[in-house]
């Protein structure tokens, strides 16, 4: 929802951020799940990424937004070791990841979430001129490499102990891991959870084409042995019993892509920086068409987040990394959309040749000028203009802008 509101409803988004900061002033910490009050129910302190995004985009927010207080709130999360802050922070700082054997729980998911939040916060720190903090956070955000085991089936994020040994045996299809190392998913769903460093992840896999192949495998994989899944699903109960996300995934999703829950929403947007934008465009159109309809959603709405993903993806736009001023370009679903932003500026998305069969992008322009990459700056979008797409029914492999 933050990604959508920061583009279309900046006034409301600013007021929401101020509400979070009021909670910080009243309770001493940012709520990790505000419903209302702090439920403390979610892994990874992703509120830090949302606040960091607001700091970077603050010139478009109401003037009442307090960037100094906003930084104070997220810096407390990131640097203060306290039971009310990031769980396992001391271990994360010491080892670069949260190791097994300390009863923290969600060790892999929390580490990857902290990495993403730290990257976003480093962008906010740079924006505020806090060079030392930015460097420390940027360095911490790269530690996902310590959980990436290239020797396991081409590459997988795996839980490990402080001495460096991997958890064994390791079941890649076990929901929430062997003993709770993953949140609301299995290792397959966290395989690409590095949205802030997609090209580095591609290098870890080897060649860029290998990461693209794994993305396709994720979308098209067959049932896992012993998983008890419907045909075409990779699914396994693990040791935790049946969870509603598992049921939704089997009934509504494809392959190992768990669109009914947040951990995979970035995956289809990883294809372009991995070197295969046509893969992302193909499956983005399949997701926007298949997972949203008059009879069902594929899963959790979670405060509007699923609807927001759809609306942005249907526009052919997505912010892959909170705090970044670059929006990725995908496959728009409609021929013409006109949006009036809070600033009063008009944003139009045009794809006149668009159809159910013409899902691939053969060219994209901003105000008539061809874009050199499959991305566009947030500031350009906010100032208004026309984003134009040339759509085709077959991927143009010659059109692969960075």
Provide structural commentary.
- With 402 residues, the chain is an alpha+beta fold.
- It has a single domain (2-318), classed as alpha-1,2-mannosidases domains (Glycosyl hydrolase family fold, Up-down Bundle), CATH 1.20.1610.
- The chain has helices spanning 2-8, 10-27, 47-56, 67-79, 89-95, 107-127, 131-140, 198-205, 208-220, 244-252, 271-274, 277-290, 305-315, 378-383, and strands at 148-149, 156-157, 317-318, 326-329, 336-340, 346-350, 360-366, 369-370, 375-377, 385-392.
- It has a five-stranded mixed beta sheet. The chain has a three-stranded antiparallel beta sheet with strand order 3-4-9. It has a two-stranded antiparallel sheet with strand order 1-2.
- The two termini are 27 Å apart.
- Mean pLDDT is 89; it is low at 223-233.
Terminal Cα span: 27 Å
Quaternary assembly: single chain
Count of individual domains: 1
Label the overall shape.
Answer: globular
- Please tell me the CATH architecture by its name: Up-down Bundle
Kindly report the name of the CATH homologous superfamily: alpha-1,2-mannosidases domains
SSE string, helix = H, strand = E? HHHHHHHEEHHHHHHEEEEEEEHE
Strand content: 5-15%
Overall average residue pLDDT: 89
Largest sheet: 5 strands, mixed
Amount of helix: 25-40%
CATH level-3 fold name: Glycosyl hydrolase family fold
What class, by secondary structure content?
alpha+beta
Order of strands, widest sheet: 5-6-10-7-8
CATH class: Mainly Alpha
Q: Total number of helical segments?
A: 14
The tally of beta strands, per DSSP, is 10
Radius of gyration: 21 Å
Uncertain spans, ≥5 residues at pLDDT below 50? Answer: 223-233
